Structure formats: C-alpha cells, structure tokens
C-alpha cells in the first residue's frame, strides 16, 4: 500500500457490479481492483465537476456557504456553482 493512502474503504458489490468492475479493469489493463475503483471514483468526481483539493486547503474552503451566510459562488469543487441539468 502506498504511504499516502491512509484510509481503508470497504465496499460490498453484487455479482453484476463485480463483473462490470472486473471487465472494465481488464479492458483498461488496471493492475488491481483497488486501482480500478480509485480510477472510477476519480473519473466520476471529475465528470460531476469535483476535483482534488490543492495542498494546504482546509475543508472550510469547500463549504456551500460563505462565513457571512451567503451562498458560495466560486468553483471550488463543492458543486455549489453547478446547476442541475
């Protein structure tokens, strides 16, 4: 396990989900199921407009409200700037 991966996440999949994951993993030549899951999560988050936090950013940078109670409008990965399609 990489030193920067400090959190373990367990998920339960049904047979169809596992087959889909494995089929995708082998098609993309991913080295492991864990790598495939990380890549799918990364792609899904980016597709929804979410991105990784910049180094040094605190969780308060990602709120949906500013400290004065007004809605946040900057694109900071919170999704607050997105409109539903």
Topology (SSEs and partners):
Layout: H1 15-27, H2 33-47
Helix pairs in contact: 1-2
Offer a concise description of the structure.
This protein has about 80 residues and is mainly α. It is built from two helices and no strands.
Q: What's the story with the biggest beta sheet?
A: none
Secondary structure: helix percent = 25-40%
Number of β-strand runs: 0
The average pLDDT score comes to 79
> What letter string, H or E per element, gives the SSE order?
HH
Structural class of the secondary elements?
mainly alpha
Polypeptide structure, described:
- With 85 residues, the chain is mainly α.
- It has a domain at 15-51.
- It contains two helices and no strands.
- The chain has helices at 15-27, 33-47.
- Helix 1 (15-27) crosses helix 2 (33-47).
- It is elongated, with a radius of gyration of 17 Å.
- The termini are far apart.
- The relative contact order is 0.09.
- Residues 80-85 have low confidence and may be disordered.
From the structure above, extract its key features:
85 residues; mainly alpha; 2 helices; disordered C terminus
């Amino acid at each position: 396990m990489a030193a920067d991966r400090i959190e373990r996440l367990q998920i339960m999949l049904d047979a169809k989900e596992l087959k889909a994951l494995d089929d995708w993993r082998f098609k993309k030549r991913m080295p492991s199921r864990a790598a495939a899951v990380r890549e799918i999560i990364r792609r899904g988050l980016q597709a929804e407009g979410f991105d990784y936090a910049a180094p040094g950013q605190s969780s308060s940078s990602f709120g949906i409200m500013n400290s004065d109670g007004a809605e946040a409008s900057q694109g900071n990965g919170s999704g607050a700037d997105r409109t539903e399609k």
